[in-house]
Amino acid sequence: xxxxxxxxxxxxxxxxxxxxxxxxxxxxxxxxxxxxxxxxxxxxxxxxxxxxxxxxxxxxxxxxxxxxxxxxxxxxxxxxxxxxxx
Length: 86
Fold this sequence. Notes:
By secondary structure, the protein is of the alpha+beta class.
């Protein structure tokens, strides 16, 4: 569904309801085109705890390769760069 910024602002409740049902709303404005959509819920803390509870003893949350990459990144910390230095 498409709308301009004025129409979107005037009928926000309608477009919110449409987006909540899974349809994307494209809003055109002088600054560009924006998309109004519903995002997935992601993982809650209770979901994470339930997942951890289902793991076998001695089995980690990440795969072996993923855990190795996390440890390698922690060992090779880099100083933050200033955004003003080019």
